[in-house]
């Protein structure tokens, strides 16, 4: 159970709970975009899930069997956090003895994890143990640990065993061949492991220092290197252990061209430099970087009657910072970020629809890097289109390394009735990802005006996704073009025809290609010549004209797909109030749910949120009133969409309750919610609820709109936003709006409550 | 800490000890020669090492790195023992709460493992838990578990999660690709995993039944399938859970030609049959088989003042029974049997020198199977000879699957000074294994007179090993032929020239080939024609004449090798009395030990034990007096050799103390001694001490000798022995000898205390 600590900067666990090990490991995960380190404890427990993930280091577990279902995934690297601590011969473990005082706390302000335990051993001796840990945001390769042990009852014999353990697997799949293990200068430990298929070297180097002399011996085991330190500590005195570790891989840009031996040297040199700084300096530098990059630069501040709101927004900004591999445009964000094995480190539409807005508005350079990843993935997307018999670029539903192409597994768990494995269809037919990628480009360009990116990459992405849609459309008996056999965002329904979300967006993708073509004809005809192989203007135009678009009924309701509105309507009250996701599955199986008017998330509402300008307020209202009651929010992605729309609808109570539910996806009481990692999309959603929903900052067509709708218990919301290269400070109260252009090199146009303002300096309303 | 239980049939752990998990898992290992199942507990603990090994299912972990040091090894199969037990919401774990009563006991008589715990949960509720488990000796594929849970304080809500978990690795190396997972009839769980390189399918099928109705749901995870059962149990009533599991692999002879799907069907059918029997019937059948095969058939019985002696002999017979893959002659015994990952399941000379005598005398059919393994390995041995530039058959120092050839790893742990990995030389130069294999053939033939085996396999093995030696000898400046750059049984010394053990045995190997040739010339000339390609009589003769044989000095001492007797002599008292093996390494490194007259085990003494007829009693005595004081018994194989010789020397006290030390290799107080598995060779040694040492049953030249020398505290020793196809019962007291020929189809010649007796019925002396 996690809760607020001493301030809204601090997320804490008050009581040690063996049943919630996985949750704390995930929600208190440390990282810096280069790596993510689950916050496993130094001592080991059954039920723990230790994990270290380095962005972009994908590998596929080798196999020679026909039943193979392995796909490229982010391998779980060696563990260096572990310390076996013997206190007077007794292994330190909170499963035994008595815990007199305990707290574990992650301080978002500094990025430091602290655990403090006052422990009485089974033999009755008392010890104070303080554990501090930081993954440096300043030096992306560095992890620092500091452990302080103070015997309180009597002098103590203390033995510490710690090193680097490469026996870690991804739930049993071992991605690494064992490489060299080295001791240097009888002090520095180094372990190399190499991914079996992609051949990426991981080099772990570590240095352990104690505050007093200790008998030391060094040991090696399979995939493992460690040192044992024995010493005696006076009662009341403290033994301080510092462990500084660096992580390097041959995938790092700086390592390009280096062989393993050279990488080992580079790593050792880096470790020596970092180790010379010591824990406190490393932690201080990292904390300073947190201030510079996030808390002094782009804080989201809320004055709420419920302090958990501010805590949640800091939680969101913290994780959005550590999940993004901003250092390398060959990488993107995984659905569980770098915080667990869930979804194998794969990138989904979650990036464009749920996370990207944060970066576009807050850290445009990171947004650019994420967009460039999609551009660099174009070869795989073209390959996927070709394999399906299409042209242009069809983006994989799940993406890993640039050249991996589609990495969605083919089979999931077995059907409990037939006992046979169920096929996973998303990689085959959840094709809206290609317009989501196009929407990402549009969002980025609209908010930033970054013409340079567009010329290098953006236009080509839009043209090539348009080409995919042009080839994907199928003629129907009605003389229209259809998109059949797909899955929309509402994954309760599969193999459906004319999904409103997909069809609308496909047409918009074609339109956008035409619009950008027209724009370039005016502004940059030379570029059009260069992009000529990707341009099929007449085809786009013809296809867009013929595409079947589900029209609103007379009551304004847009059919989610060809069959939805004809399905059975049942009383959903029981599931709407569910405490756990998926409760409807206790009463109905997937096939039966397919026959009911119920949505996991509402396709039509998401469409209306993302493309509001295409619909009248009456249609928006009609669909809200129809679909929201039929939506169970069984996707962690659903809550923010519906929160924002509820805010638009001025249903403050529902909006706020959806916001709280969104916060609770990871921070709530369910101890198992985040075992496989945090929910990157819903964390982007927490920020979206606040800034896009309550703050009302939105991209509508080619305009930027601000229409605040603060919840009743919020007295103030302020945040920073980059728009067209200008940094704005936006300060909102229930009665006032203040927008300050901090950059002041160009005025920014903003539509506020229906009136367009040009903000060169400060606007107060 | 393990000790004797209620009788000398029972090995027990009286107190739960987290620090000795690995030891109990090994010494209480269950098995049947087909599989070995480490006795891990149902509930999991950190520090445990769960393990299931199926004989002969070798696989090599794939790797594409230059630093690769992986070799073919026995993969650790899926775990099905685990049961997560929730008692009123509290996970059952002996790390928490209070243990009011505890015992864990392995009954050698029945092969059944029982654990009984009276446990008070952290919330103060009391429960009795009984765990029973058996690996069937009757049906080699079956494992049965029975768990009885009795809440004592109040009615209890009990939840059990159990299934098949394929996430297990060999210390982080994953040997399996994930295969199909199936539920059949919503009841039977099945998981398939396939070795990545050798492509062996493992099929685990299991059935769980409860004594009362329970809410059940089934779940799947990566490499994992399981069921959850929830039920309420009245205070004082018992919930009984039976879990019957079968293990099949595509390496099984009965599975030859079956594809995975067919094997799955076979496994399911087998499981249903076994499950229909239920736990008690399976356990009873297995226990009956133990009686028939071992305890009623070939018991070794001792009346000793120290009951631990009888316990140790039963421990030895138990493990010798479960370690031998008697069902399949393509398999042999690993140095750690099937009880752990140590030595990777590889077969060493331990089989021929330390384990084989037990089978030859007690279970000749098993001995035959082990000999046939060597014959079937001939292609690999020929390949190894050829690779080294030799002819004939050079057996690998470490063997795995028949076609694997040499599987000794190339590198061990790093040198702590240089930090670089140290090369492992045994696979390259510990070449005496080839004469050990020849010695195995000779032992088997001499004891059994099995001419059929010799004609099919034995003669060829002897001729081809002779051919290897003929090609391996190197001419020296002295006009003699030498064997340079080897490691003898004394592994303290490496890269040595003219090791007495190796040179004597090489000549004997050549002589034996000649002797068998002469024999066949008389008895079976037709066979000689068939074996002609392997016969080089003149060459053997010439080489044997010229081979350099280290002669006894005038004082009778035979130089262990060219340099040994010139090395430094130091006071070894401190290491002779060592409590832990390897204590000399605390003061000297390997290079320094190479410069001291100290033996890990004494090559010359082992030579004299195995080939006594070649040495005079005076030479035997002189070497005993010289070498034993210089021997640290730092090999688990050393103790039995020296115990037997001490018995020969009538040093009863030393003999008995070496016997006890031999018993304590696995059963002694060191909690870490057996973490990686039991010591198969020293377990053969426990039996050797008793039967070959104190009983004095020995093969001397072509004679069988009996010369008892019971320890002072033994009043009686009786055992059974197969000789020349006759089963003898041998009953010894300090004053009497009684030998009964039970088979009576042929008289058996036995030299007893210098006099040859022909025993057709009963002899009493």
What does this structure look like?
The structure is a homodimer of 765-residue chains. Chain A is an alpha+beta fold. Helices cover 32% and strands 24% of the residues of chain A. Chain A has 20 helices and 31 strands. Chain A is globular. The two termini of chain A are 42 Å apart. Chains A and B meet through strand 13 and strand 16 of A and strand 13 and strand 16 of B.
Structural class of chain A: alpha+beta
Percent range of helical residues of chain A: 25-40%
Q: Which percent range describes the beta-strand content of chain A?
A: 15-25%
Query: How big is the Rg of chain A?
Result: 27 Å
Average pLDDT taken over every residue of chain A: 95
- Biggest interchain interface, per-side counts: A-B, 58 and 58 residues
Unreliable sequence segments of chain A: none
End-to-end Cα distance of chain A: 42 Å
Biggest pleated sheet of chain A: 10 strands, antiparallel
Placed side by side, the strands forming the largest sheet of chain A appear as: 1-2-8-9-10-11-18-15-14-13
Tally of helical runs of chain A: 20
Number of strands of chain A: 31
- In quaternary terms, these chains amount to homodimer
Shape call of chain A: globular
